[in-house]
Amino acid sequence: MHWFDRLSIYLYHYNRINTWSGNFSKIQGWSSDESQFARFEMIKQAANFNGKHLLDLGCGYGELYDYLSLDFQLAKYTGVDQQHQFLKSARRRLRNERDICQFIRSDISKFTLNDVDIVAASGSLNYQSRDPNYITNMITRMYKIANETVVFNLLDSSTFPAQSLLMGYNKQGIYRYCKTLCSSVEVIEGYANEDFTVVMRK
């Protein structure tokens, strides 16, 4: 992602840290805890996470790990984010899980990792980018990294009007692109008015 786009994202969340101190969902741009958890639930239903290594791109405070741990025992969780304030808090919050959880500061559009079973991205792919191929490049990158499953959610352009920072995507267009990479593609909707989830299974 272009450095100026990354800077815009950084400043957006930095300002929300000061405005919504202690409210993790608001700081990350979610409308509520329920909105965030509705998306997590779709990710949880996408795969069996027991004994798996999950790469969470745009992990925020690492709360997806908590949510999945209610029902699964992950072998490893790697959270990646560019916002150092998020990662500092996540490391402190999950310090007792350090044998399983690691947090890395990086640009998610360039990050790669070996031996990953499942790649997830919740809310982190909706930011505006100067690169017109950003979303297709990200989907391709995630699919190459994952050994088993890719699951991500996107804002729906039919119900979400484009903003200066965020943008929605056409469900059918995303589905058609994913099908060029993967024969097993599922689009899940109905859990939120402005959102859909894509699951790609190898």
UniProtKB/TrEMBL annotation:
Coiled coil: none annotated. One of its GO terms (biological process) is methylation. It comes from the Bacteria. The keyword Transferase applies. GO terms for molecular function: methyltransferase activity. Residues 55-141 form the Methyltransferase domain. Keywords: Methyltransferase, Transferase. InterPro entries: Methyltransf_25, SAM-dependent_MTases_sf. This is Class I SAM-dependent methyltransferase. It comes from Vibrio amylolyticus.
